[in-house]
Amino acid sequence: MIPMIRSFSMFIRQIIKDSMLIAVIIAPLLAALFFRFGIPAVESLLCEFFLETSILADYYLLFDLVLSMITPYMFCFASSMVMLTEFDENMTGYLAVTPVGKRGYVLSRLLFPGFLSFLASLLLLKFFSLTQWTWDMMITVCFLSGMLSIAISLLLFSLSHNRVEGMAMAKLSGLLMLGLPVPFFLLSKVQYLFTPLPSFWIAKIMTEQNLLFLMPAILTSLIWIRLLYGKFDRKIR
To answer: Which residue windows are transmembrane per the record (predicted)?
Structure first.
C-alpha cells in the first residue's frame, strides 16, 4: 500500500507542476458555478424576452447530469495526460517493475483518481445541482460517471502516443458522453440506437427514475473498460 501511496503522491505532484492540468482540475468547479447561477439567470432573461414561463427549466436535470460527468472526465483526463508524459519519458515501464508494480500503477493512475472524482462529483451535485436529488440517485450517477471516466482515460492513453495526440483524442472521447441528451430529445425507440453508450443509460436512470437501467449502465461501462484495458496493459509493459 505504501508504494501505491507514494506513486499517487508523485502523480499529484506532477499535476501541481502543470498549470494546464491545474486548470483542468478547477474546471468542474467553474462549470458548477456557471450552471448553478448562470443558467437560472439566462432562463429568466429568455423567459422575459420571449414572454414564456419556461424555456430551459425542463432541461435542468440534463445540466446536472453534464455536471456529474464533467468532474470525473476532467480528473481522468488529467490522469491520462500524466500517464502519457510518463510514457514519453519511458517512466511507465520502470514504474511497473518497481515495488509499485503494474497493479499499483493502475490503481494510482486510474482507480485513485476515479475515486476522488466520485467524491468531487457528489460534493458538486450536493451544493450546485439545479434539481432535487436523492442520495441513492446521486451516489448511483456519480459512481457510473466515474466508471465511464475510467474507460475514457483508458481510451486516451491507449490510442495516443503523446500528450498532443491525447488532447486531440480527448475531443473524440467526448462522443462517449453523447448519450446524455438522447432521452431528453429522442422520445421514440430510435433512442435505443445509443445503447452502447453508458452515458445513455445514466440519463435513462434519471429521466425514468428507474434503477432497472443500472445493470445495462454498469455492463456497457465494463465492456468499454475490458475492451480498452487489453491495449492499455500491453502499452505499459
So the answer is: 20-39, 59-84, 105-125, 137-160, 172-191, 211-229
Predicted local distance difference test score (pLDDT) of residue 93:
67
Least Cα distance to 159 among 110, 76, 230, 237 occurs for 230
- Asked whether the whole model's pTM tops 0.70, one would answer yes
Q: Structural domain boundaries of the chain?
A: 2-235
Contact between 47 and 53 (Cβ < 8 Å): yes
Residue 70 CA from chain centroid, whole number: 5
Contacts of 134 (CB under 8 A, 6+ apart): none
Q: Which three cell numbers stand for residue 64?
A: 446536472
CA distance 117 to 144: 11
Determine whether 37 is exposed, middle or buried from the number of CB atoms within 10 Å of its CB (0-12, 13-18, 19+).
exposed
Decide if 198 contacts 222 (C-beta within 8 A).
no
Tell how far CA 18 is from the center of its chain. 20
Amino acid 8: pLDDT: 82
| All three cell numbers of 175 | 462522443
Give start and end residues of each alpha helix (H) in 34-134: 39-50, 60-88, 92-97, 101-106, 112-128
DSSP 132-177: ---HHHHHHHHHHHHHHHHHHHHHHHHT-SSHHHHHHHHHHHGGGG
Nearest residue to 137 via CA among 127, 122, 123, 148 = 122
Q: What is the pLDDT of residue 96?
A: 63
Residue 220's identity, in one-letter code, is: T
